[in-house]
Specification:
The protein is an alpha+beta fold. The protein contains 13 helices and 9 strands. The radius of gyration is 22 Å and the shape is globular. The two termini are 32 Å apart.
Length: 367
């Protein structure tokens, strides 16, 4: 049960969850509802001159699931006839999520620790086991959440998705493991960025962004002298913001100069940032994020993009979707070459909509 109450700003404490959106005079969101307060945000609220804010604690009571009415036998038969299960998706148990969350927070808070490499290795092994146990070559980003803190969640998402793509591309086990380590540590340099910039509840100005852009080099500096960290990992951390057209940072490298790990991580890094809500922006839908990724052919490596699109399942088989023609439909088959357009069966008409191949369905989209 969620409990909501008013707290004076002078009594706010780190860890409280804000239960209202804080906006400026132009109605721009400075702090999103649901944000967990830290000392920087509390200071910011006090500087705004607010008397107090609403906070909440607890979790909502689960609503009992309403069973769907049974489908007509003929439509159910059609679904059963053409249904093709999705490839195995990586899943993380609650105990693994807890260990991974605690481990990644330790890494980012203790970059100079003697246990740094062992901790990174332990987390990656947990992720490797989750991927290999069910031979996963696909990922559902909505099921990966390990914690609420953006940097830690983002690092685990990038690691897991990069490992799945590497496995689908049939890389060696050692390479899959190493790209997992690189994904976990790709934002390690942010541990050296001032908190006033890192936790700013608004877009960074040019000067602040120039400081933030140093984090790949800072991350590389942390890792390069750790003998147990392979050079392929350190270079991937250094290059994960480089672009194929040479317009990335920190060095403006072009395609042939960028390591394969960094090319994969760059795609995943952009996607996960797009679908994650931040205090200064709303999250894009998975569909919109994929469309944006597909448009970035000058920035992102095409082969890495194809591997990503083949690994991310937007509409899992057996889910119900709304079509632009007004009909609800059941997803029965996904097409790795056309991730936005699976095959579905109309729940009213029983019609099969092959959104990827059937030209008569060209004008129909999933809403």
């Amino acid at each position: 049960m969620i409990k909501r109450y008013f707290v004076r700003c002078s009594s706010l404490q780190v860890g409280m969850r804000i239960d209202q959106a804080i906006k400026d005079r132009l109605d721009r969101t400075l702090i999103a509802r649901g944000t967990i307060l830290d000392s920087y945000l509390i200071d910011s609220l006090k500087k705004l001159g607010l008397t107090g804010i609403y906070v909440s604690e607890g979790e909502p009571d689960p609503e009992p699931a309403k069973p769907e009415p049974p489908l007509p036998p003929q439509i159910q038969h059609t679904i059963n006839e053409i249904r093709k299960p999705d490839p195995a998706k990586v899943t993380l148990s609650e105990s693994v999520k807890k260990r991974v969350s605690e481990g990644i927070q330790y890494l980012y808070n203790n970059p100079e620790s003697q246990e740094f490499t062992n901790t990174a290795s332990s987390i990656t092994q947990n992720l490797m086991k989750a991927i290999n146990e069910n031979d996963a070559i696909a990922v559902d980003i909505s099921a990966l959440k390990t914690c609420d803190e953006y940097t830690f969640k983002h690092s685990v998402d990038v690691a897991t998705m990069s490992m799945v793509i590497a496995k689908q591309k049939e890389m060696k086990q050692e390479e899959i493991y190493n790209i997992g380590v690189a994904g976990l540590l790709h934002d390690m340099g942010k541990s050296k960025i001032p908190l006033s910039i890192l936790n700013k509840p608004a877009r960074l100005n040019d000067e602040e962004f120039a400081v933030m852009k140093k984090h790949p080099v800072l991350g590389y500096e942390i890792l390069k002298d750790k003998k147990e960290i392979p050079q392929s990992v350190s270079f991937a951390v250094l290059q994960h913001h480089e672009k194929m057209n040479g317009k990335g940072y920190p060095f403006g490298l072009k395609s042939e100069q960028i390591t394969p790990f960094a090319k994969i991580m760059s795609v995943v890094d952009v996607y996960d940032a797009l679908v994650t809500e931040r205090p200064y922006k709303e999250a894009f839908s998975q569909r919109t994020a994929v469309e944006m990724i597909m448009s970035m052919i000058e920035d992102l490596d095409l082969d890495a993009m194809k591997g990503f699109l083949a690994s991310v399942i937007l509409y899992p088989v057996d889910t119900t979707v709304n079509l632009s023609n007004g009909e609800k439909a059941r997803v029965v088959k996904n097409n790795p070459q056309s991730v936005l357009r699976p095959t579905v069966v109309g729940l009213t008409s029983g019609k099969i909509y092959d959104l990827a191949e059937d030209l008569s369905c060209a004008s129909i989209i999933i809403l």
